[in-house]
Amino acid sequence: MNTDAPSNAGKKPILQIDNLCVEYRSRESKGGVKRAVNGLTLVVREGEVFGFLGPNGAGKTTTMNVLLGFTNASSGNAFLFGTNVREPIARQRIGYLPELTYYYKFLTAEELLRFYAKIFRIPKSETESRIDAVLKLVELDHARKRLIKTYSKGMQQRAGLAQALINNPDLLILDEPTSGLDPIGRMKVREIIQRLKNEGKTVFFSSHELGEVETICDRVAILNQGELKVEGRVTELVSQYQCNLEQLFLKVIGYQPAS
Amino acid sequence: MNNAIAIASVCIKELYRRKDFYVLFVLSALLTIMAGSGSFFNDVNASRYLKELCLLLIWISALVIAVTTAARQIPAEREQRTIFPLLAKPVSRWELIFGKFLGCWFATGIALVMFYALLALVSGLHEHSWPLLNYFQAMWMQWVMLAIVVAMTILGSIVFAAPSSNSTIILVVVLGILFLGAYLHQLAQGMPQPSQTIATVIYFIIPHLEHFDLRVYVVNDLGLVSWRFIGEEFLLALTYTLFFLYAAWALFRRKALNT
Q1: CB contact under 8 A, A100 and B81
Q2: For residue A3, what pLDDT is reported?
């Protein structure tokens, strides 16, 4: 089902996935091949906050891995800003926050951001002001000269968000950005996403926090066993199915509660 | 090139913030000073012997630094998952490999400059002679040789995930070439077929690392080696280095990295 609203039609597609299939070898599957993603087609347009949902093993992370160039598609294509994701330049205008924090722990937050700024070829004259701005945004300004290994989990996640924002990206890809955070940490991340949304940024994120998704997202897609089951505007889906997002999610994945 | 240099600078930063690198470096430097400043009844042969010992120590230390640092670069990026936020930026896999190579090679270069400067200072104060060009040639050739070793180790790190097994294999191969490389052709003559052909082919294929060893010129004050020879060996080393880096990239470029 696709309920991509006609109001979106004029907006530029930022992220485009065409009939994407990802297969990998598996002894458990018939023919020794397992399809992690099966014929996924998706468009995310400029300025949207898009929730990418599904139970564990649905193919969300595999799809993100293809978008980020970590995994190759078996067939089909994916584009970021119209450029095939196989080209590193496709990632020039994106920011990525992985589910867990994986940063060089021997660097300080400031050094980490300076390194990534160099990768994005941000002019030296702008680098320091960008670092100041993102560290203030994620409230890590006070700890900028401390090694990342001394940070708490929440601080590391915010350092991750800072690195995802250093290039002032037009598209943010967030893989379960609030997982493992305490309620205050979650609230802060949510506020930052909301602020980015207000600035007109496009956000593509996966999450298991359906209440959070319902609040923040414009549109969602629900994947199950590698296939797209439902896609559309949150408000329309909720009114069409006469239930909240969580109930819809459970229905789509075929969850039967124990009687 | 910008990205490769940025990756190299982080690689060097990691090395100088690691304790094991310091311990090896300081230990080698101390031994060099102690051995180089020894005086045995003004016996010239004893003095030469000590210089030879110092140079051997420099060779072993530089080799260990080069192999152990290069062996862990890419496996550590994968294991600590820092590779994901890095490759999610406009960084190609070639730039990652080349950056890691540059970082390790420059780090060994810095260590070599320190070792040779110490040796030149200590033996200069002791012998009242300053054959700086001889030291420069010996150091340059050793550094050029280490480029091949570092590239070979990075290739090994794509094939063998465990840095310890990679380091062991590379050290065995390098020491094998250094000790037997020059005689392999002669050894082949006494072998039955097809071993003879195989040994001969290996002789012509392997990088002859022993050609880069100018210790004997420094120890015995044999004067300078022709600059033409140094230039030719540099070009040969460049060819081997590029070949190993290309092979590493060819293996790594389509490798799926799963988050």
Answers
A1: yes
A2: 46
Closest CB from B18, B81, B90 relative to A102 = B81
The number of beta carbons lying within 10 Å of the beta carbon of residue B182 is: 15
How many contacts, defined by CB atoms under 8 Å, are there between A and B? 91
- Candidate from B6, B82, B91 with C-beta closest to A102: B82
CB atoms within 10 A of CB A19: 12
Q: What is the pLDDT of residues B140-179, one digit of tens each?
A: 999 999 999 999 999 999 998 788 999 999 999 999 999 9
pLDDT of A2 higher than 70 = no
Q: What burial letters (b/e) apply to A90-109, b meaning 16+ CB within 10 Å? A: bbbbbbbbbbbbbbbbbbbb
pTM: 0.86
A144 backbone dihedrals φ, ψ, rounded to 5°? -65, -25
pLDDT of B237-254, one tens digit each?
999 999 999 999 999 987
CB contact under 8 A, B258 and A71: yes
Q: Which residues contact A214 (CB under 8 A, 6 or more apart)?
A: A234, A238, A244, A245, A246
**B82 neighbourhood in chain A, CB within 8 Å:** 102-104
The two three-digit tokens of residue B116, written as one number: 């040779």
Interface check for A241 against chain B (CB to CB < 8 A): the answer is no
